[in-house]
Structure formats: C-alpha cells, structure tokens
Design brief:
Length: about 450
C-alpha cells in the first residue's frame, strides 16, 4: 500500500482548489459584478513557442528530506523562469511549480528563490509608499507573503514587470496579519507544506481578486495589505488590471501579449495501478495559432466572476442531486465528493478516502451555464490497490466531510486531475474570445 504521500498531499491539493479568489469556495462573499472589457487576442506576426511540458512525478527534492519525508501524488508541475525586471542575467529557472486551473496568479515559495534574485525583485508599493503584502486563502490553508514584480516567462510566453507573490517572505512579511490567519487552516511556509516550489494559477478570471479588491476589504480568497515597518495590518484596495500597470496578481496567461485567452491541457490515460511519472502538455492560447484550434466536442460555459455562485463553476448532477458549485481543477489530486453509500477506508492514513471492494462505475453529469450536458463518468478505485511505486493514479475519491477540518464542498463535485487523464481539456478566460466562443468555458 502507498499513499502516505497522497494523504500528506491530500490537504495540500485540496487547498489548491476552489479558492475564494476564483469562486470555487462556497463561502465566497458576493460583490457587485466587475466591469469586464473583452480583450481581443492579438495575432502574432510570427508563431510564439506556446507549448510547455507538464510532468507528474514525486515532486521537488525538498519533499523527500527529514523524518516527515513524502512524495507528491497526482501533482501536475511545470517549469517557469523569473528574472529581475529588465535583467537577462539575474534570472532563475524554477521547476516543480504546480499548474492549477483552480486558482489565479503566480506564487513562488521564498525558500525556492536564490538570494541574489530575491533581493533584486522590487516589492510593490501602495499610495503611502509602503510595501504591499497579500494573503491568499485556500480551502484549508493560507499563503502570506510579499507582492513583488519580476519578468516572467514560460516557454516562449513572456510578461514584463508582472506581480507575483513570494510566499513566506521574511522581514515585515514574516508574520501573517490576524485577519489572514483567522480565516482558518494551516500556514504555508515551506516547500514541504506546499508540495511544490510554487504554483501558477491559470483559472478563468483575469486577476486573482477582481472587483472584490478594488475597494479596501478584499474577499474570502485574496486580501492585500499595506506593510509599513510596524507590520501588515491595514487592508488596501488594488486595481484589477491584467496588463501594465499591474496591482493585483494577474492570471499569467491573461497577461501574455498574445495567446492570452486560455489554455489546453493534454494528459495520457493512466491504468488503475498507476505509474511512477507522467508527461503531458499545456498549450497557451485557444484559436490563436495553428496548434490550438478549438476542436472539442463539448463546450460548457462557466459562471463569471459576478455570479453569486462564484466564478468558474458549473453544475454536476450526481445520484439525482444538482451540485451547482462544481468544477474541473488540476490542482486537486483526486475526485472530491460526498457519497455516504460508498465503502469508506478504515486505515488511519486513508480515513477520508473511499475504498470500494471492486472498481465501481460512477456516473455524474456535467451541465454548463449554456445548458450543454455531458457525461463525467469515471471508475472509482481503491487506494489500497495503488503500489508504493506509483505517484500517479486514476479514479481515487475523497469524502470532503472526513477531511480535518471538513471541507466546504456540500454543493460541489470536484473533478480533480484524474478527470484530465486521457483527455484534452480547454479552459478559457472570462471576457476573452477563445476560438470563436466567449469565455469563460471548459471544453473537452
């Protein structure tokens, strides 16, 4: 039996999904709909290299150290490069950055950055010339750190002077404000806590907080702070621009000069017992180059950021119940849904998992805001059948009510990374035309 890593990564992977900033949280504060101006996708004069490798493996080396060592499980990673603004030499290529369709913004762990680059990344300043910090609240954890600017690139796609969050930064950012930590969950302070060197959120909104943060108050998902030498306590407003001048963390894809309307993720199918590693691709842009034409048979429109349900969700119907805050999320390492009729695991390390005695076909359906309904069926497997050598496996399910603390998924069915195995899945960005169809939508 394997999955100590999966259990160690269970809360982590859940924490990377359904965050309030992109509308997956059922507790998100409802605010007035932001004004979204559709941005035409520029046609590049020459093809941009827009395909990056996605790797699922045991994770960064830092996970496999110490008495609490573990390996990652069902985590999709990419490699990014950041440079000091304007520099071509003070740069760092950072591997094992989680590719997450369930959040927005680039966030890098401070321990993963070399000292010379970190020192050269300027902190964003507010109107009082104080450094800016951010709290990003995930489902059952939170990330606090500085907001800095860097020149960012992934394959041929580049953004100059883009804000990113440096999680667990030092100095004035060493202590999270009480209004951040009081949101609940555990603080993310190390690479081991995160299961990665960082995360690149490529969800359906253009910035990580949108209209919620354009007034001092923030949302359940993201809060920006003024951070004078006395500490970070005052919540401040930040503009929601997906291009310079930046204030909030943008969706890096939305900030690209081209190929900025969405992504296409393709991963191979995985057999029941899993594999040691898996390689796929993410293509940036939909309908912007010859390699990213929209060819999916099913296009399901998602909610926008003005919806009371939150952004980026659709309806899953499971055993007669309509779950209107459901979502597809590469940042969740399994399927998360409530079904008390399924056989639960009794092993202490697997207590939140379902352990069917035989492979069991489950048949949820997915319905978009446009009324399109398609099958989301999958075979549920037992984690007891996954060997220690596998860091990737399909069809595992988790009961979110048995996670400690319980997760707010009563109205959700979370189709995590296993849903993407054997599929090509398109995710388009709100307010952008993607392949002739207005976003936001998912298609497969």
């Amino acid at each position: 039996m394997r999955l100590r890593a999966s259990v160690a990564g269970l809360l982590l992977a859940l924490s990377l999904s359904a965050c309030g900033g992109d509308g997956g949280s059922s507790t998100q504060t409802v605010a007035a709909a932001p004004t979204v101006t559709p941005t035409p996708t520029p046609t590049p004069t020459a093809s941009t290299v827009n395909t990056a490798t996605v790797t699922l493996d045991a994770g960064p080396a830092a996970l496999n150290t110490g008495t609490d060592a573990y390996t990652a499980f069902n985590e999709p990673y990419v490699t990014v490069t950041i440079c000091a603004p304007g520099s071509t030499t003070n740069c760092q290529t950072i591997d094992h950055v989680i590719l997450d369709t369930g959040s927005v913004g680039l966030r890098i762990m401070q321990p993963a950055l070399n000292a010379s680059l970190l020192a050269a990344l300027p902190t964003e300043s507010d109107t009082a010339s104080n450094p800016v910090g951010e709290c990003y609240q995930y489902v059952n954890s939170y990330a606090f750190g500085s907001v800095r600017t860097a020149d960012f690139s992934i394959v041929g796609e580049k953004v100059a002077g883009m804000p990113l969050q440096v999680i667990a930064d030092t100095g004035v950012f060493a202590s999270a404000p009480s209004s951040c930590s009081s949101g609940g969950g555990t603080a993310i302070t190390t690479v081991k806590d995160f299961g990665a060197n960082g995360i690149i959120g490529i969800g359906t909104t253009t910035t990580d907080c949108g209209s919620y943060c354009t007034v001092a108050g923030g949302s359940s998902g993201a809060i920006y702070y003024s951070c004078p030498t006395s500490g970070c306590s005052s919540v401040i407003a930040r503009a929601a621009n997906a291009s310079a001048p930046f204030q909030q963390l943008p969706n890096p894809v939305a900030a690209f000069p081209a190929d900025n309307n969405g992504t296409i993720i393709t991963l191979p199918a995985v057999a029941q017992r899993g594999v040691a590693s898996l390689t796929g691709t993410v293509i940036f842009g939909i309908g912007t180059q010859s390699d990213n034409t929209l060819t999916a048979a099913n296009v399901l429109r998602l909610t926008s950021s003005g919806s009371g349900l939150g952004a980026g969700v659709l309806t899953a119907t499971y055993k007669g119940k309509q779950l209107t805050q459901s979502f597809l999320d590469t940042g969740s390492n399994d399927y998360y849904f409530i079904d008390t009729s399924l056989n639960p695991c009794t092993e202490t390390d697997l207590i939140a998992f379902y352990c069917p005695t035989t492979p069991t076909l489950l048949s949820p359906t997915l319905t978009g805001q446009n009324g399109t309904t398609v099958s989301g069926s999958f075979t549920l497997y037992s984690p007891l059948d996954v060997p220690n050598t596998s860091t990737v496996a399909p069809g595992l399910g988790v009961n979110p009510t048995l996670v400690t603390p319980p997760l707010p998924f009563a109205n959700s069915f979370d189709f995590g990374i296993p849903f993407f195995f054997g599929r090509t899945v398109y995710t388009s960005i709100e307010g952008r035309n993607a392949g002739g169809v207005a976003g936001p939508y998912v298609a497969f």
